[in-house]
């Protein structure tokens, strides 16, 4: 009798494979996320508009894509978790232990990322129902929402939705989910872009986004661009390495890497053509961070024709982007626990989500109802973000570059690159990526300041 994929252990689960298109959709879903909707406009506005976007493209192509290819190759070569794949392709046990950094990072990120994802779901429902625009005090609405228990409730909703996808397995769950939502995401992006570009005064926002101000570029902007390229491709958190374990041997990893990078860039570019025209049209500062999304933009939507509809679509867009990312993040610790302790997929999913929910409660409360939950001037939420994003992710990426660039003998065969491209890839992994990733780590950890 053949068991259902959700009840298989890790050794049989790895027999599951993405289809070629399914893998691309899933990987792009992992790459696009909430950061591109408010962090990207914030840092783009701060560091020179198109000048920063060009720098971001250079960092993504020169550093992000080589590291992405390395993660996919290690995952497919090892056919294991983000920890064990290093050992299975010929590494010593110490590499498996170092790979645990990515597993821990993914777990921590789910715990606080799901909170912000919950905000977007709440706002989508509120916008479509009309409740969001019934009261013009959007600052008060956001503060009221944050001061209660609703953030915890909506975090739980996000975690449950994520679990319902991942528990079904790789092909029946993750692949099918992304094949439906990623095309939907693109449609929403195009609809909102057209609406934004047709607003009065939108041209000023487009001009700001597309005209470079080279005077604002410097060493700090380079590290910020590199860090954002790293995070936007889901590098260092084990997601791409884990997804790589489900890729068929016949699939070209080089072409897949280009497709994923292209999808991420397209999303970032269209996001810019949504945010900047809208903010300039309504006199909003695009560098407002989270306040831009949950306070300033609702005010803009309320002032435009059919604002409730477009506001609902905007927050639905954010919610979809968040969910495709939480799905990929959850698969990292799920694959590890299934392999390490021979748990069923069902057991792994719900135990990990329960622990993420518990860890997320103080994070959610520290931004509202229990804002006194802070250490050293940082809220609990901010500490989780700092530890995962600023420390663990750069370390995880550094481990991948060193392993693939210096240690792994089978890198050439698994990457599938021609001799010339392989030499270029190896050069980037050995001499460029580790140095820049190390500088990102030193900068984000506060050791290097500008």
Any overview of this molecule?
The protein is mostly helical. It has one domain: Hydantoin permease (Orthogonal Bundle). Helices cover 76% and strands 1% of the residues. A two-stranded antiparallel sheet has the order 1-2. The N terminus is likely disordered.
Structural descriptors:
mainly alpha; globular; 19 helices; Hydantoin permease; 450 residues
Layout of SSEs?
Layout: H1 10-13, H2 20-31, H3 35-46, H4 50-78, H5 84-88, H6 93-129, H7 138-147, H8 150-166, H9 170-197, H10 202-210, H11 219-232, H12 239-244, H13 253-281, H14 290-303, H15 307-341, H16 345-366, E1 374-375, E2 378-379, H17 380-407, H18 411-415, H19 419-444
Antiparallel strand pairs: 1-2
Summed up, what is this model?
With 450 residues, this protein is mostly helical.
Strand line-up across the major sheet? 1-2
Q: Tell me the overall shape.
A: globular
Tell me the number of strands: 2
In oligomeric terms, what are we looking at?
A: single chain
Distance between the termini: 63 Å
The secondary-structure element order is HHHHHHHHHHHHHHHHEEHHH
Number of domains: 1
Helix content class: over 70%
User: What is the typical, i.e. mean, pLDDT?
Assistant: 90
Instruction: Sketch the major β-sheet.
Output: 2 strands, antiparallel
CATH H-level superfamily title: Hydantoin permease
CATH top level? Mainly Alpha
What is the strand content?
under 5%
CA-atom Rg in angstroms: 21 Å
Poorly predicted residue ranges: 1-14
The assigned CATH architecture is: Orthogonal Bundle
**DSSP helix count?**
19
CATH topology: Hydantoin permease
- What structural class do you assign from the helix and strand content? mainly alpha
